[in-house]
């Protein structure tokens, strides 16, 4: 091996005693130009379970052992190839199932998040060194650091951290998919809408088994973001009106979602019922999109509604019909059956989740561990800010060290064995 | 690519416009040092379905197309890297699930079979050229080839071919596994025996769904050969004695098998019943192993049987008990429950399938296409032999050409598009 160059491939036999187990290709990666920065050998054999097993048995006989889950990436981290948030991005990248989730994971793998944290740490270290200096001269009651400038710096840092914390909502949505409930009365056309949304979709569409066995979710990809559509069809069959029965289960599902698409049959519902439904389904933190369905069945001639444009139709409808008495102008009029204005609905769903178009360059927090560390950093910095005028420098220094500690946990500048065990045990074997 | 050396690995990004799809490793194999002898590039990306799909889409956009099943191996064959029987061995190697099946496929991949066929072809070509020479001088009634020597040569060639044909039984058993039915009356201990056979087994043991959905087979590996154990348990539950009901289904299963393990409870059965069972279960071509079970329940003291040795016990049992009246001396006495003499039974099962220990060097025919070609070759050669004294040289030459044609079909010296299509469409994609 020492005679061979790194990044070369060699053809040969794997031999156990006199027995040839297989013809294989051996790929060679020499330190430090490998994933783990160690010498690495990869064996490509024929894909027979028997052959693979035989080769692994032979390697173990010769003193090798099976890798633990995530061990290669752990080694890469321990050898300084990746920091901890980059290592975590490897798992995210492998699990990515949409353009957006791939981009966010890739940005993190490339160190976008890490360098932002590094710059925060650098600023804090600078700050801390000024405070430490004061400590050294504590008895002389000197203030090396201008308090107002320090406050401004902490506020700036905290502003960045708060933005990162805020980005988790979107980051998590991108990583996990955005839970989107479709609710409405029986025969509002929910299943037809679901099909209309999915049929036009050319990206990956799949059935995902939900957390509970009886929940089937459909994944709809809009502009690279996955939306997990949750139909409440199972409930409606047994009920006449939403408020009568399954409200509890529906409300549970809505509570776990970011978006609620409330669908009603524009021909069948009274304004009073509509009002009841909307009020009973409202839940803080859940964005509701109100959609009037079956506009194809309206006698459009008599009402002089132009259904060629969904938004215009909605506006005209709200003026023409009784709906205006409810003051409901912000709804979208569609025909799920005729696939009218389905694209507009998709854009509305997308906008409800993503305020601005993603450029792919933004740093988004997607990891709950990172979120918690950032929240703790923020708390520590708030203590620094509050204590600036009242407590002594040594207390300030302690809080700043805490903030540095929490930031360091994200990149792995500060780690414990438990933390590493916890992170890498979630990786698959071979990664 | 032209600037890079063959068998090198390169790290980089796959980029679609401005968008980085993934960090990847590219392995380079340059003509003729690749599997297909063409320039080959392999991309190793992160294992996310989304990423894989994106990269494939990009490649297709850039003019690539998906490979057809077996296309790489077909190209390897068409470019002279492998002959046809070697190409087929690639699929066999991937499907191999035991030491023996891996060895047979590997021997074929390495060209063991091919070179044997080549030497046969060479001899036949030599023979043919002598006959052709006679044709050229037909009017002069010359015999360049001594008829007796020619006959000897043909007989020798046919002897080799017949051995190859005969090897198919073993070769096929090794490749497919040896079907082994366990039959016996209710409570003979069949399931206990099955468990005893499998529990002691340290090699790969798995449930294989059978050809019909209700048949579950257990695979037992003995000395590197897979035996597919077929329990007839499903039948016995509904019956009192084998001959009464499920005989038909049992007989069907026995008919599809190479080995029948007939198990009886030595304490429960009468010699008459035993005789009936054995007679009714006998089937031509199926080797029967008669096994007396539950010797642990015999009052061994009174019968002075030494059960420490299965064979000796069988001999003594057959002398002591009524079984000798049936003349049944060739049975094995075991206790499935106490796991006594299970190893002896395994050796009996193995010996029933494999006469001589395999050395790993023998050429075994495992492919039904090869078998048929060899049979046709043999027939053609028999015609040559029969015609030697009676027909004219031109007829002899025709038959020899036929024999050469059939031999050539095996290695692909003679092929048709249909034949290639038929062979390679059974490969998986990417092979």
Overall description:
Two copies of one chain form a homodimer. With 431 residues, chain A is α/β, with parallel strands linked by helices. The first copy, chain A, is 48% helix and 15% strand. In chain A, the strands form two sheets. In chain A, strands 5-6-7-4-8-9-10 form a seven-stranded mixed sheet, with helices on both faces. In chain A, helix 6 runs antiparallel to helix 14 and helix 14 runs antiparallel to helix 15. The first copy, chain A, is flat. The relative contact order of chain A is 0.13. About 5% of the residues of chain A have low confidence.
C-alpha-based Rg of chain A, rounded: 29 Å
Mean pLDDT of chain A: 83
Order of helices and strands of chain A: EEEHHHHHHEHEEEHHEHEHHEHHHH
- Count of DSSP helices of chain A? 16
Q: Main sheet of chain A, how many strands, which sense, barrel?
A: 7 strands, mixed
Helix content range of chain A: 40-55%
Number of E strands of chain A = 10
List low-confidence stretches of chain A. 201-215, 234-239
Q: Assign an overall shape of chain A.
A: flat
| Strand order within the widest beta sheet of chain A | 5-6-7-4-8-9-10
Largest interface: A-B, 35 and 35 residues
Termini gap of chain A: 23 Å
Strand-residue proportion of chain A:
15-25%
Oligomerization state: homodimer
Query: What structural category arises from helix and sheet content of chain A?
Result: alpha/beta
């Amino acid at each position: 091996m020492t005679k061979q160059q790194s990044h070369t491939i060699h053809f040969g036999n794997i031999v156990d005693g006199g027995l040839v187990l297989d013809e294989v290709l051996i790929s060679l990666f020499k330190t430090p130009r490998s994933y783990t920065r160690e010498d690495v050998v990869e064996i490509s054999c024929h894909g027979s379970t028997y052959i693979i097993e035989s080769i692994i048995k032979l390697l173990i006989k010769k003193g090798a052992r099976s890798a633990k889950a995530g061990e290669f990436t752990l080694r890469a981290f321990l050898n300084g190839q990746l920091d901890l948030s980059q290592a975590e991005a490897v798992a995210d990248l492998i699990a990515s199932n949409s353009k957006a989730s791939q981009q966010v994971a890739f940005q993190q793998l490339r160190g976008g998040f890490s360098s932002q944290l590094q710059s925060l740490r650098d600023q804090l270290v600078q700050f801390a060194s000024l405070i430490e200096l004061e400590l050294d001269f504590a008895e002389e009651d000197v203030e090396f650091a201008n308090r107002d400038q320090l406050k401004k710096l902490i506020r700036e840092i905290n502003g960045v951290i708060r933005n990162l914390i805020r980005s988790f909502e979107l980051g998590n949505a991108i990583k996990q998919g955005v839970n989107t409930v479709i609710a409405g009365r029986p025969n509002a056309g929910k299943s037809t809408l679901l099909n209309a949304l999915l049929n036009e979709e050319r990206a990956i569409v799949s059935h995902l088994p939900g957390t509970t066995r009886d929940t089937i979710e459909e994944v709809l990809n809009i502009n690279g973001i996955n939306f997990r559509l949750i139909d409440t069809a199972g409930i409606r069959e047994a009920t006449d009106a939403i408020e009568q029965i399954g409200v509890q289960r529906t409300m549970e599902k809505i509570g776990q979602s970011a978006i609620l698409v409330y669908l009603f049959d524009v021909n069948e519902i009274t304004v009073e019922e509509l009002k009841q439904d909307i009020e009973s389904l409202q839940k803080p933190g859940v964005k509701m999109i109100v959609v009037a369905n079956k506009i194809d069945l309206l006698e459009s001639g008599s009402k002089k509604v132009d259904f060629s444009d969904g938004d215009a139709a909605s506006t005209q409808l709200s003026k023409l019909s009784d709906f205006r008495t409810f003051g409901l102008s912000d709804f979208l009029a569609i025909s799920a059956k005729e696939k009218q204005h389905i694209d507009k609905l998709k854009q509305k769903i997308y906008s409800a989740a993503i305020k601005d178009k993603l450029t792919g360059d933004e740093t988004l927090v997607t990891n709950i561990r990172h979120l918690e560390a950032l929240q703790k950093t923020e708390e520590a910095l708030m203590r620094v800010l509050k204590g600036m005028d009242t407590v002594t420098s040594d207390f300030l220094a302690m809080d700043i060290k805490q903030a540095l500690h929490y930031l360091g946990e994200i990149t792995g500048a500060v780690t414990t064995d438990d933390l590493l065990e916890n992170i890498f045990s979630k990786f698959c074997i071979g990664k």
